[in-house]
Amino acid sequence: MAELRVNPTRMEMKRIQTRYQTARKGHKLLKDKRDELMKQFLDVVREDKLLRERVEAALNDVYRSFTVASAVSSPKMLEEAMICPKKEGELVVDYKNIMSVTVPVFQLRVHAEGGSDSYNYGLAFTSGELDSSLRELSGIMEDLMRMAELEKTAQLLAEEIEHTRRRVNALEYILMPQYLETIKSIKMKLDENERGNTTRLMKVKDMMLQAQLTQKHTEDEEDE
Fold first, then answer.
1. Which of the two residues, 218 and 30, has the higher pLDDT score?
2. How far is Cα 138 from Cα 144, in angstroms, rounded to an integer?
3. Domains of the chain (ranges plus CATH)?
4. 103 by DSSP, 3-state: which?
5. Which helix (H) or strand (E) covers residue 88, if one does?
6. What does R_g of the chain's alpha carbons equal in angstroms?
7. What is the DSSP letter of 86?
8. Cβ burial 76-88 (10 Å sphere, 16+ → b, else e)
9. Which of 43, 78, 90, 131 has a CA-to-CA distance to 100 between 20 and 30 Å?
10. Distance CA 23, CA 162 (A)
11. Alpha-carbon distance 67 to 28, whole Å?
12. pLDDT tens, position by position, 9-60
């Protein structure tokens, strides 16, 4: 692992140690966030799976009823029956926060002329199968909205999980090892400098002692 290019001083080592401690705390927080995001993601996926199974079963019933209605009624009659809707839908989108991820909340508001159970057509010339298919389709609209909400939430959570995972890996396998390697290198250089200084001091001391001995020896010879 390549170390950072810094001056090998104690002040620089102290600064790198502080950054390393900050990186450790951030790494722990990001790991906790990633784990909680995974828990939320799995809860959303499980709910979406159950809801999708229910919706798909209901849609099969709708398609079956509409197929029967198409078989017993002419295409022109079906077109005339469905051409003028009496209901108007409005999709209201709110937002909520899940672990710093903003996810949508969908709500469908239906405005119907003649009440929510009214059809777009008269009942005299249409089949009961058409009524049944439209009633079943209307009954699963809330589930469809909820399923769309869950799948968008799962997508956003998955993107945030991947982003958080990359940040965790960058701290764990790149930045923190760089800090440790840099701290180790600075310590080695400081120890080496300290040993060099000690050696130089010992040599100076020996030279001073030698000079003192020489001076004393010279003074003794002069006294004689």
1. 30
2. 10
3. 17-160 (1.10.287.3240)
4. strand
5. strand 87-98
6. 40
7. -
8. ebbeebeeeeeee
9. 90
10. 19
11. 57
12. 888 889 999 999 999 999 999 999 999 999 999 999 999 999 999 999 988 8
